[in-house]
């Protein structure tokens, strides 16, 4: 099995029975904030795109690059389609000209022509990617590969049961806006960033230990930030709180926990994987490339500057009545929302910053009032969640009909945020679901999980706790760490106070727990 690195989470897998192109991303994403690093735009995409199969793990725009897919990937390719709850991915791919689809039943091995086998595991909670994420397992002639990319399954046993995996590709770096955009003192921001960075690596080590593959490939990050406004987010300043470590940092940190089987793929690197080993060739020496990272970024910044400026020029749509359009699009969804609206529990404020003809900064504040089920001008009331961004970005979201403001505005990092109290996943779940189809799916998902009662308990240290994390049902016998009276679920880093059951990371999600030497409290009744 030959694997060619094509940048970020992208790779081309070649076997004698066919070729698979995974997640090709070249064009900037999220309001021209994210670029692939190392740069992959100069690869021979005309040849790389001539494949038998296409696999797109999910709709995040650093995995689903519509312009690139349309121009470079053969429309004769069969799309290996995850079993997602909505048809959005298939619909978007059909609009790009793809007509052949293999809808892979979830977690079932499918044998393709020539003995090539694949299995796709789809994750389907509202917080997985943009309504869905997935992993691809491939086997040919006894060689097995798992492309886990960004996905965070509760465990990897589904893949391990199919036989020893020889190549494990997985995310290790940040793909979020926290804590960089928050209006916090720099010391606090650095501390939170270091916690986030450490959790990312801890989760990665756990997955690696679960699968015990022959070779581990760090992929799916980090992006690089080439706009001058965002340049500080690149991990080139010695900031221990930066959440975007690169592949060379991965190798260094992996070595500290005993890892010796890491393999880096630069764009153009080729790994020949057999049951006995992995031979990799690179277009340039890996150590030398990352030693000159700053120079590479600076050269890339100048080369991509016209692209960024052209994108910025396209965002402004002064003809859009922002308040009126937000009312028209969001209020019907507020009316239909039960679980998400209750979960948010209060107004969310957007401060839209603009510059008038005299050069003075102006701010229009708009509130999405979840209890009141309306969008209205800010009335000087207290709010728990506030976002501040350029007015032009909101104009562009409304002009384009974007249904996922998380997979656009928030991932762009082109905003600042403030909140009172804990993280609230329902805020982001709602702004990811600005369509009838998405909202109804998310409401149904939360309804189903609200009614479910997790009756199984496990013992962790001095505590008896429910086996499944209240957040996204991770198995706490595998991901749970107890320190004193607190439990941390390493899958997403959520923390719980065991004495009270209170979630310390977000609103809601109470955990059931009691000391091992004490009688448990009565089990809760299922919601009616």
Automatic annotation (TrEMBL):
This is MBL fold metallo-hydrolase. Gene3D superfamilies: Ribonuclease Z/Hydroxyacylglutathione hydrolase-like, Rieske [2Fe-2S] iron-sulphur domain. GO terms for cellular component: cytoplasm. It comes from the Bacteria. Pfam families: Lactamase_B_3, Rieske, SCP2_Rv3818. Keywords: 2Fe-2S, Hydrolase, Iron, Iron-sulfur, Metal-binding. Transmembrane segments: none annotated. Residues 464-528 form the Rieske domain. InterPro entries: RibonucZ/Hydroxyglut_hydro (IPR036866), Rieske_2Fe-2S (IPR017941), Rieske_2Fe-2S_sf (IPR036922), SCP2_Rv3818 (IPR057330). The keyword Aminoacyl-tRNA synthetase does not apply.
